Amino acid sequence: MPNTPARIAATAQVDDGARLGAGVVVWDLAHVREDAVIGEGSSLGRGAYVGPGVVLGRNCKVQNYALLYEPAVLDDGVFVGPAVVFTNDVYPRAINPDGSRKSGDDWHAVGVTVRTGAAIGARSVCIAPVEIGEWSLVAAGATVTRDVAAYALVAGSPARRIGWVGRAGARLVADGDDFRCPLTGELYREADGILSPVEPSA
């Protein structure tokens, strides 16, 4: 991977100053703006948009027509489903109160932060500023208006926690005082609303 050049479709647009790591794939009609950073091994689907200065870690997968507005930050291994939107304006307006057109100096951009391994389902909307915890799962069509805990499964509008998921992405099932992943057998334990993996005994 370190020696694999980025692969950019002929119809994609990568602006000057954007940095693409080894093995990055940018599909048709995607647009990567200036100063964006796309980590090694990541892929951007058809029509995806990555705003100026947005940062993606390694091995992220951004699906078709997802819109990641600055200053979004994605850690390693984040999945962003088709047509997901990350907003960046708390008070969106095209004009100022006096009727003049807003410029870049008339507002303060706020971003969405997504931690390692998290997945954002198709057509969901994340309303900045918000942080999506590691290995969490946002269900398709959800509207995220507040921070999402690590390993949380959230759904609805506004999104609320409806369960827990493990690192493999499956919904965890109760196992005594713990929760177990049905795919891997990993155990997790909840304490004060925070879920953590149970480390195997030495």
Report what the structure shows.
The protein has strands at residues 7-8, 13-14, 19-20, 25-26, 31-32, 37-38, 43-44, 49-50, 55-56, 61-62, 67-68, 73-74, 79-80, 85-86, 112-114, 119-120, 125-126, 130-132, 137-138, 143-144, 152-155, 160-164, 173-175, 178-180, 187-191, 194-197. It has 202 residues and is an all-beta fold. It has a single domain (7-170), classed as 3 Solenoid (UDP N-Acetylglucosamine Acyltransferase, domain 1), CATH 2.160.10.10. It has a 9-stranded mixed beta sheet with strand order 1-4-7-10-13-16-19-21-22, with no helix packed on it. The protein is globular and about 60 Å long.
What is the structure about, briefly put?
The chain is mostly beta strands.
User: Which second-level CATH architecture applies?
Assistant: 3 Solenoid
Helix content: under 10%
Number of strands: 26
Q: Enumerate the strands of the largest sheet in spatial order, edge to edge or round the barrel.
A: 1-4-7-10-13-16-19-21-22
Main sheet overview: 9 strands, mixed
Secondary-structure element order, N to C: EEEEEEEEEEEEEEEEEEEEEEEEEE
Write the CATH fold name: UDP N-Acetylglucosamine Acyltransferase, domain 1
Principal-axis shape equals globular
Distance between the termini: 34 Å
- Total count of domains: 1
Q: What's the name of the CATH homologous superfamily?
A: Hexapeptide repeat proteins
